[in-house]
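Q: Here's a chain of 448 amino acids. Please give me its 3D structure as tokens.
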Amino acid sequence: MIPPPGLRFFASFLIFAFALAPHETAAQKSPESEQIAYVFKRGDTLFDLANKYLRKRSDYLAVQRLNRIPNPRRIPVGKSLLIPVNLLKYRPSEASLSAFRGDISIATGGRNLTPIQGLNVGEGSRITTAARSFLTLQLEDGSRVSLPSNSHVRITRLRHILLTDSVDYEIAVDKGRIRSKVAPLQKKADRYRVRTPVAVSAVRGTDYRTRVDEISGTVFSETVEGEVVVAAGESLSSGNLISIPAGTGAAATVTGAIAKAELLTPPELLDPAKIQSEADLRFVIAPRDTAIAHRIAIASDAGFVDIVAESQVQGTVIDLEAIPNGRYFAKVTALAADGFEGMPATYSFKRQLSTLGGSADAGDFGYRFKWFGEGEGKRFYRLQILKDSKTAIPIIDETALSTDTVTLSDLPDGEYYWRVGVIQFSSDPEDREAIEKWTDFEKLTVAN
């Protein structure tokens, strides 16, 4: 009996594995037909191999038939045995819920799990995100899987194979999109795949996106970092497999056709350093003819584990609902007419709510100027009134006002222009940056 290190040493690369060249990938009909090659060593027996590494001892018969071995007690040293992966022993691998927002559902074994950060999610789980909902899973090897809104996936493989001491991960995307941030796989037999109704993709360490078009059923795979192999259908067969390096994508249709395309370059966000202080967030993208739409994702971290908002628009102006104050990251992509989402551009920005509005009217005691707005932290106001022109020197310039109203009883007849400003300090003691903003000039005609 060879000790486990010897077996691991002679367990070779998974035959269909995740090579990035077609000639390194052998055909298989389905996940159940995946095989590894094991080189028989002096002292090995098929029975010992079955005892240690096969799920059932009697499965040695299947290995014997597959490899056409007439006598299991007489196997030549150096012979390469093909062993179906589904016969091998494994321990369940682990995934944990790193972050989530909104309405998500995680079901396993016929029961729904209560989503909490750090929740263990296992093989066979079904995961769904509703509108404006997001989640990220972290796998045992450090890889991450992120689901945006309106997506549904199944974890079909989450295993650690004992014979090869390798990971075996597979995610099935039934609806929507996922982003796979795959850690560099350490063993030749390590595997990470994304399976969809019409295509399958595999990597050995990369950052890529997978999307199932809800109307056409076409599956888009887009590589941001590294390289991915994609095949139409159920198998990574050499006949219809293509490689998509960073900056390219592949589209597989329900008819079995597959096409490759260059991704659009990252879009440019105009004035990215602007503090997002209005009630809703607004981002403006530099226009270009090649983009028909744009998508933006907002996260609290640079790795986009904790996604807090997302939007897609046909134009170049993207509005998002309010989010809490803080520092955030925006990832912007352009969508092309062929359906591919382009390369991302990432920006950091500050969100600090600070709105301001004002009004002026005549009252019993003169003209009353009033202002209002929202924002956390101390707010000080400033009122300016100019006569005859917006460019004149202010005749009234009241600063550091803590009230929200000023009444003037002695304004002579004439035309005036007025505005109010605010200086707002953050409620975060570590943030010493203040926001200053003004309302637009308003015209006021005084006729006593």
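Q: Can you summarize the key feature?
A: The CA atoms of residues 252 and 258 lie 4 Å apart.
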